[in-house]
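hey m, so remember when u said the tokens were messed up on ur end? i reran from scratch. heres the input so u can diff it against urs
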Amino acid sequence: MLKSLYISRFFFIAFGMSIVLIVTGFYLPVLLYFGQFSLIVLLILTILDGFLLFNHKNPIAAKRNIEARLNLGDETLINISIKNKGNQPYRITVFDEPPFEMQARDLTFNGYIKAGSEEQFSYTFKPTERGEYEWKNLHVFIRSFINLLERRIIIEAPEKVLVYPSILQMKNFEFLIFNQQTQQRGIKKIRRLGHNNEFEQIKNYIQGDDIRTVNWKATSRRSELMVNQFQAQRSQSVYAVIDKSRSMEHRFEGLTLLDHAINSTLIFSNIALKKGDKIGLVTFSHKLGTQIAPNLGKRQLQRILDALFAQKTEFKESNYSLLYQSLRKTIPFRSLLMLYTNFETELAMHRALPMLKSINKRHVLVVIFFKNTDLNEELTKSPTTARELYVSTLAEDVINTKKRIAKELNRHGIQTVLTAPNELNVDTLNKYLELKSRGLI
């Protein structure tokens, strides 16, 4: 019992005042009696307060409400429910024990709870890393109306929660893609020109054929009505290829570039599957990582989600030669490859360029890399010192370097997406929809 008993600051204030009266009583005897009387009253009230706090074995019940699976980079509301099972009201102070990754020091809630009633407290948590997070116990301090003592009640509430790539963002983008208001959110609705079929052959017209499929050039040559015959478009193979090297460790809004790429891959994979394409996954750094063959269906999306959950940054240089050799062996058919990487210098790009060109000859390669948005703020400032001028010039050079890298890749026929991390999802989807509408995949 004593371990859970604490003395409040009001007790020390009252005790201090009594001592002052007693000390002063040596000079003014009348105050001595007041001091002694107040000390006796304080002792009686303290005993009564202890009885009120401990007359019920379990006066408080508490529960933390949190989802079993959280979304990377998305704020989550966490609720704490406190129920008073006693027969008297309490002033309460609630402390939660969150994961150390939160680095939270202010998860303290104060309130007043009536007998038999329930109170709710809440806070938000935005996970910035994938993996397992552990919450521990809830600590509730209760005080009676006398407010001289406090009783600490520890409610065992350990919970382990997994943080996955953002399923919430995935569902939001799925809604936007198939919603009429898509373009207002930055996603371009691109209609595929012509039929949503693949050309098969030219054949003689027979009654019932679609007049819109008449091939007038073939008709004029053969002097009889000829039509184009189409077959239903087959599912195309699409791969998300993720670079896990140290260049993907830079952070933007709390998330690494790797995490931004992982969230984008999940969103893009879901849309590609909804569009009827097969989706696969390849990760690499200095060595090969995960490889998932392209397939259709919800199970495939779950496989990709589970694989993305386990990805970690490798603090070494990317081996594009190894990537090329692996893709050559494992992907025999022409496919769309969405490569998430990051080039900070033209030298780094030129080292990878021969392999990127080789990959692009066999497949449709889209290189997705990132703008350094932190430098944009430096360009908006008016430099007043030599140092500020140097920083501004350096920032402008880095931004222009990224543009030159994109231009050089385009010059070699490689599709590019140079994007800010917060625009990655929209820009990646727009590029995929553009390529699909142009019939390049």
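this time it looks ok to me. Residues 197-232 form one domain. if urs says something different then somethings off w ur setup not the seq
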